[in-house]
UniProtKB/TrEMBL annotation:
A GO CC term assigned to this protein in UniProt: cytoplasm
One GO BP annotation of this record: acetate metabolic process
Keyword check for Isomerase: no
InterPro entries according to UniProt: Aliphatic_acid_kin_short-chain, Aliphatic_acid_kinase_CS, ATPase_NBD, Butyrate_kin
Primary enzyme class: transferase
Protein's name in the database: Probable butyrate kinase
Reaction(s) catalysed (UniProt annotation): butanoate + ATP = butanoyl phosphate + ADP
GO molecular function: acetate kinase activity; ATP binding; butyrate kinase activity
Keywords tagged on the record: ATP-binding, Cytoplasm, Kinase, Nucleotide-binding, Transferase
Amino acid sequence: MGLYILAINPGSTSTKISIFDGENEVFTENIVHNYEELKKFKKVIDQQDYRYKAVINALKERRFPLDKIDVIVARGGIMRPVRAGTYRINEKMLEDLKNAVGGEHASNVSAFIAHRLAKEKGIPAYVVDPVSVDEMEDVARISGLFGIDRKSLSHALNIRRVVYKIVQELGKTPTELNFIVAHLGGGISIAAIEKGRMVDVESSNCQGPFSPERSGGLPILELVELCYSGKYTKEEIKRKLIQEGGLYSYLGTKDVKEVEERAQNGDKKSALLLDAMIYQIAKGIGEMATVLKGEVDFIVLTGGIARSERICDAISERVEFIAPVRRIPGEEEMKALAEAVCRVMKGEEEVLCYGEEFQYV
Ligand SMILES: Nc1ncnc2c1ncn2[C@@H]1O[C@H](COP(=O)(O)OP(=O)(O)O)[C@@H](O)[C@H]1O
Ligand SMILES: CCCC(=O)OP(=O)(O)O
């Protein structure tokens, strides 16, 4: 195709970059950052210069000339609620990410890296299916307490990618089928996709099942007691819920593979925790089945944990009465980014303008 795409996807401790030639991967590099270095930055957004330099160095080490890059695409962070799609990076987006209008997330920094390099090279830069994709029905926004709304935060990029993958395989379009997709990684998101639209979603950042590192929904009064116990600052509580919650809080590890091994070697606590996570994931899928009024074509299990056959079988046992379960292990976020750019370049998908409309707000 001769269209060189740089894809950028920052995580909490690493930044993944890929070069694609059209839809074909040329190489991928996972730049692992020094955790002590990252800890020096007060806010995620303060890491932009550090991560930018790391990206440039990685490209230089790979001997890939920066001048060869035609277009840059990045994982979108938590900006204002937006509909799914590909957005050109603009000043409004950067301002919102800088102010963390929707909260802090590693991916908030990616638009800055992409924008800076794109500006230097005079090439376009986009983000695709940001974490804050919000296509929820109004009824799904009500939390039960005035002043607190349910939010749509999810692994939208990979969730939409697996939906595309299945509909393409079947020779159909997303608007013909309904899905429940459970992204099972360090964080977990469970989404109901009705005819291509993500009408409801739960993520372990806010509610729903606990994950390897996040607490998910908690008993509310006990949480209030914890917050006012005087033992923790606000930042420490947030860290406890999002980075040091879930399996980690019980077992001191976020590695599900290790927890499985411990359980297989007779550790009862690990076995119980694993069962509890499976139980909560299945419950979340069941909830989403009610959102779709039982009209579910496929349940999809994806993300790193979906590599475990045992876990997927245990989830399936509880949910396969709803719909057939498909397993798509791992994530293909880099490919999803490159494919979105190719669709835009071929004129198959329109580029959306961030800030023009926030129709789901
Ligand atoms: N073969 C496997 N069996 C069970 N769990 C796995 C396996 N491979 C990866 N995992 C787990 O997947 C989780 C990470 O998922 P991943 O989607 O890669 O993470 P992230 O959310 O950081 O992108 C970790 O808890 C890891 O232990
Ligand atoms: C808030 C949902 C997206 C998310 O948690 O992404 P990571 O697991 O990559 O942090």
